[in-house]
Amino acid sequence: MSLFTSVEMAPRDPILGLNEQFGADTNPAKVNLGVGVYFDENGKLPLLQCVIAAERQMMEAPKARGYLPIEGIAAYDKAVQGLVFGADSVVVQGGRVATVQAIGGTGGLKIGADFLKRVNPGATVLISDPSWENHRALFTNAGFQVGSYPYYDAAAKGVNFDAMIGALRSAAAGTVVVLHACCHNPTGYDITPAQWDQVVEAVKSRELVAFLDMAYQGFGDGITEDGAAVQKFLAAGIEFFVSTSFSKSFSLYGERVGALSVVCGSKEDAARVLSQLKIVIRTNYSNPPTHGAQVVATVLTTPELRQMWETELAGMRTRIRQMRTALVERLKAAGVSRDFSFIAQQKGMFSYSGLTKDQMVRLRDEFGVYGVDSGRICVAALNDKNLGYVVDSIAKVL
Ligand code: PMP
Questions:
Q1: Which end of the chain, C or N, has fewer beta carbons within 10 A?
Q2: Does the Cβ of 111 fall within 6 Å of ligand 1?
Q3: pLDDT, tens digit (0-9, with 9 covering 90-100), for 281-322
Q4: Is there an atom of ligand 1 within 6 Å of 185 CB?
Q5: What share of the chain has pLDDT > 70, as a percent?
Q6: Does the beta carbon of 132 lie inside 6 Å of ligand 1?
Q7: What is the CA(171)–ligand 1 centre distance, in A?
Q8: Beta bridge partner(s), residue 99
Q9: What is the number of alpha carbons within 13 Å of residue 18 lying toward its C-beta?
Q10: Where do the Aminotransferase class I/classII large domain residues begin and end (predicted)?
Q11: Rounded to an integer, what distance in angstroms lies between the CA atom of residue 353 and that of residue 379?
């Protein structure tokens, strides 16, 4: 009798399953719109010039690979704070932010979740309905009851903000609210600045704990613009969490570069919080890896490389927007009468296309166009070469 006889087979990750199916598809015209990855105009995963330049610089003065401090590279943590909050912000200047390097944005969320479980063990966590599929599992695995707040309004093709704010206003004090800082995954719909004001007000007055997930800074309207929600929370003078991911913005998916920042009320609080974050890290994986964070720190702190990055990031952002507009226009030109103009208003890599599960299955089975059953497509995987085929295929399943 083996210890493992009774181990159940876990369900496959739905998106990875889709990738496997895509790989096995023999249709030469197949297009993968299921993934959460930015591809360039040639359908390739980009390797940014700023990353190559930073790596070259690092190679010229190679360093031995000792253990990093538990909280990661100091210059990296500082650069993250500058990017997320502003180097001159009161909280950064006052030493009120505890920032640790993390293994991707996922790692930042997990460190935050484990820390919250220590300080706020009875709290409920609320995520948007729908949300990035790992949010629920991650917070559940950290020991929380996870519920949701209304978000997507299929009929209105947007956010059901009245329902969302209503849910936040009736949440119990201490409830952890996970918010997508920009470029909502999976829907592509963000709330407006005025609506953010109401969210911040609800979080403050109801004494909720905001956890901003920032996985796409720079993919929506710009680095500063996409950080506007963080600024609103800062202005409210409350404590909150921000997880950062550089997977997309640096196209460094496999390097696993991210961070967690906790904004505290005082420098003393931040020091104690940092000490606890370090315990969480120490007891999970001891300390983070060196390479990816050194690349990002080098780029962010070297003016020419930083400029290069901002230009390359703007290039990715602009191309996604062009693909959104082109998709809308080409569907119209193909004689599709349904109004798809909302796709051009959505932000970030994803679009809730409004297509039904049956239509998504037909796209996949009959045309080799792979999206998620929910209707989510990755706009960042469209290019001039595959757009026409995708448009024709959508027109045929409508
Ligand atoms: N949050 C959201 C909303 C995401 O979409 C993703 C990645 N798809 C992450 C977090 C995780 O990012 P990372 O790959 O850096 O762990």
A1: N
A2: no
A3: 999 999 999 999 999 999 999 999 999 999 999 999 999 999
A4: yes
A5: 100
A6: yes
A7: 26
A8: 261
A9: 24
A10: 30-394
A11: 10
Q: Which atom of ligand 1 is nearest to the CA of 257?
A: 15
Residues 257-275: tens digit of each pLDDT: 999 999 999 999 999 999 9
Among candidates 13, 14, 15, 136, which has minimal Cα distance to 381?
15
Distance CA 69, CA 57 (A): 22
pLDDT digits (tens, 9 = 90+) for 333-353: 999 999 999 999 999 999 999
Kindly state if the Cβ of 380 falls inside 6 Å of ligand 1: no
Residue with tokens 């935050």: 112
CA 248 / ligand 1 centre spacing (Å):
9
Return the bridge partners of 297, or none: none
Out of 103, 111, 151, 185, give the residue to mutate to test ligand 1, the one with the largest number of ligand atoms within 8 Å of its CB.
185
ipTM tops 0.90: yes
For residue 392, report the distance from its CA to the centre of ligand 1, in Å.
Answer: 31
Give the pair of three-digit tokens for residue 260: 């967690």
Catalogue the active-site residues. Answer: 132, 213, 248
Bridge partners, residue 378, by sequence:
350
pLDDT, position 296: 98
Q: What is the pLDDT confidence band of residue 234, given thresholds at 50, 70 and 90?
A: very high
The atom of ligand 1 lying closest to the CA of 258 is 15
Please determine, for residue 166, whether its predicted confidence score (pLDDT) is greater than 90.
Answer: yes
Angstrom distance (rounded) from CA 261 to CA 20: 35
Q: What's the whole-number average pLDDT of the chain?
A: 97
